[in-house]
Design a protein that fits this description.
The chain has a domain of 111 residues. It contains two helices and twelve strands, in the order ββββββββββααββ. It has a five-stranded antiparallel β-sheet. Strands 8-7-6-5-9 form a five-stranded antiparallel β-sheet, with no helix packed on it. The N and C termini lie far apart (64 Å). Bound molecules: zinc ion. Zinc ion binds next to loops.
Length: 169
């Protein structure tokens, strides 16, 4: 199953269900420029035609699959799943047109296996970054380390107790 919809300034949306994956491709043609982003989500097989809603901050795709109900938020620079959608019935629904799956997704094929992996790495990196930030803010308050040998210095030390290097504090 594959569908397409025109999202105005967002570009042309194409969605497809391949195996357990929902593939989403958003492409925009600006004069002299072709922009496209695609994402793939592990949703399970679609049970019915997905529904597309237009919200203030973007579009939400509601998918009913063998696994669960999935909601995917489509914004101009990001496509992401969301846990609990707003009251979608309050928003206008956009027509999805059935398309031939191969025509829209075949050229993107070589890139698609990378997408879920790359997104996984990004979120892991973000997790590490926030962790190390927390550590840094803690250590800068209570602890100091020698820039020469890395030994921990006591609060108020002017010189490293290990190597004698002058501590800048
Ligand atoms: Zn030292």
């Amino acid at each position: 199953m594959a569908y397409s919809a025109n999202l105005g300034s967002y570009g042309q949306l194409a969605i497809a269900n391949r195996e357990e994956q929902t593939q989403i491709n958003l492409s925009m043609s600006i004069p002299g420029q072709q922009q496209s982003q695609s994402s793939s989500f592990s949703t399970g097989k679609w049970l019915s035609k997905p529904k597309l809603f237009q919200l203030k901050q973007g579009f939400v795709l509601a998918i009913n699959t063998t696994q669960n109900s999935h909601y995917i938020l489509i914004q101009q620079n990001s496509i992401s799943t969301i846990e609990s959608p707003p009251e979608l019935n309050r928003y206008p629904q956009i027509d999805l047109t059935a398309i031939a799956q191969e025509s829209n997704f075949a050229p993107m094929q070589p890139m698609q296996p990378m997408q879920p992996l790359r997104m996984g790495n990004m979120s892991m990196q973000m997790g590490n970054m926030s962790m190390s930030l927390n550590n840094q803010s803690k250590t800068s308050i209570s602890k100091q380390f020698c820039s020469q040998c890395g030994k921990e210095a006591q609060l108020g030390d002017r010189f490293c107790r290990s190597c004698g290097h002058e501590l800048n504090n």
